[in-house]
Structures are given as structure tokens and as C-alpha cells.
Sequence to fold (398 residues):
Amino acid sequence: MARLDRFPEPMRSHLADLPCPSFQTHPWITGPELSKRRVSLISTAGLHLRGDRPFQSMDGDYRVIPETAQANDLVMTHISTNFDRTGFQQDWNVVFPLDRLHELAQEGVIGSIGAYHYSFMGAADPASMATSAKKLADLLQGDRVDAALLVPV
Amino acid sequence: MGHFLETEGIATTQISLIREHTEAINPPRALWVPFDLGRPLGVPSDKGLQRQVLVAALDLLQAAEGPVLADFEHRETEAETTGDSEPAAWACPVSFEGPADDITDNETLINGFRQEVSELRNWYDTGLGKTGRTSVVHFDPDSAAKLLSAYVLKGAKNSGDTDLSFGVALRLAAQDLKAFYFEAVTARPGVAPPDSNSFNRWFWADTAAGRVLLAARNRCSSETDKLLRMTGKMLLVPMDQGNQS
Fold:
């Protein structure tokens, strides 16, 4: 359903008017075949461990989610009221597919999954995300992750 | 984020929910999926579909060149194709005596609200005992109801046992209240989980809780605190219920 022309107003205009950054360059990193990749999830759903700090500001901060996290460990404090949360309430994999990723690793479809995964709140200013991405890249490389799957909400 | 990470040497692939946005940003690799906002992997508990989406997104890492924006092949249901938002088969089995549309005073509203919370609490506890999982984060149902009731009735700004500002506490209490209502009503025997449209229609039109959140939003609009005004304007009530953002 998530095509702009199918949203009712005022949501359609709100989404259509959101500023989207454009880039002059198109970086392209290659790597080994999928079955040898180490993959981490990066969500923008405002997810975090139950005991962690709720998302409050839009300054591009993130939360760390260990690969051992279970469904009941993870909660959502994204500020937006304009997306469905009932899917996440029924099955966390519909937003954060960590169980599915574990299965793909066990089957050898991917090489392994990162020790840590990350969540931001997607309403943040893209400029603030650039600074966070640099920090995140260091963390991912330190964890030998060579592929990141970005999941919106 | 994809562009920034790739610049730093991390290969990325991503799921796209709004194709027009992804076309504009043009990230290295993206898979557009035709699902509702909030459901990037498709359908809750549909492992097969979730796996297909995941593998299709990861397969883009094998693309020879980019940027690449692929479409996920998904046979849409009739409702998805038409954008039909009319109620499907789901009808909430919980029917509260109040609030009626003619309820105008907050005291009557809050009384109805408290009765709802009390009535639903049994099923919330039952569901939690059965699944061991809840999306309620900071405010248990009674605490959320207490915070919201005190604000709507008296303008009291009490963040409960948290050190959160009242604006943040109000938002989180509202989120927890909606999570509680969803989990309670779907814990009742024989109730299939509703789609988000059906649940929202019920919550905002037929419950005192929905009206309490609308009343809280209205009270926020007259606050002097900027954060609280913004919370009321944008963060308590969705746009399709009259949110002005």
C-alpha cells in the first residue's frame, strides 16, 4: 500500500513534501558472495532493549541490540503516530527480522550475523545521520560485518 | 544512511517502503516492497513471506553495478490493490457502554475510560501470561490511565516514577495505552488480530481511551511549554484522526 498515490490526505501531502537528500556521488562497495557475508541489521523504527533509554530527540542517536536479543527484549519508542505498530506487536520480525536472519545463517544462505545490530529513529535529520553513520561504520568493521541491511518503518 | 555507510566502506542493501523517496535519494541498493508503513517485512507471523523479502533484499548485494532499485514481486490482495480502507471482517467484540458521542464533560469521559481499562486489564494479563511478551514499555495500564486522567481532568503534569519530562512521559503513556488496548482485545478467545485500519477505527471511534487522547491533545494546545504544545500537535494523535502536523 506504501505508494504515495494510495495514501489518503493529509498523509499523502505530508509524505510527498518530506525533504529527501540527494547526492553527487554513488559509492559502491563490493564484497564476497552472500554465503560468506557477515550481516547486521540497522533499523530506523526507534527500537531498543526494554531497559534502554527511550528515543526522545531527533539528533541521530542510536541504540545497540545484541544478536542474542529475543522478541520480548525489544520495544519501540519512535515518536511518530503515523505508522502501524500492531504488526510489531504481533511479531517483531515484521519490523526487525532477527529470527529470520538467524535462520538464513543456520542454513548457510549468509555467512554469519553480526554480534550487534542497531536502531535509529527514522524521523531524524539526514545531516545528523551522516555523523552517526561514521561512528556506526567503525563499529561494524570492528565486528567484521561486511554487509548492512537497512530496514525502515 | 545507505549512502553514508557505503562511503565509509560498508556495503549496504535496504528495504524501501515509499518508492518515490527512494528514487529521490538513490541509495546503493534498495528493494521496494508494497507493504504498509510499519510492516517492512510484510505480514506478521508469515515466515515464508518475511524470508522472501529478506533474501530478495540481501541478493542485491550480488548486483554487478548500481545504484539498483528493485521491486519485490508480491501478489497484492484486493484490498491492497484498491487501497480499500473499509472494515474487513474484523469487528471488535468489546463494546463499551460509553462513551457516547454526546459525552462532553471530562469527568464522565474519565469514568468511562477507567471502566474500559479495568475491563481490559484481565485480558491483557491473560495475554501476557500466555505469550510472555508485551509492547508496553514504561507505563503499565493503570499508570498510563492515571497520568492521562490527571492531565485531562486537572492539567496535572506528573511523570509518574520516571525522570522523563512530562511531554515525553505523556507521549510514552499514550503509546503504552494503545499497545495495552491492542494486546488486551486480541487476547480474548476467538479474536483474530485486526489489521491496523480496523484497530485504529475502533480505538479512535469507539473507545473512551481514544477520546481521552484527543482531550489531552486539546489541552496541550493551550500550554505555554513549547515541547508540550508540539507533543499535543504531532505526537498523540495520528494525522488521519485530525493531527495537524
Residues 35-151 of chain A form one domain.
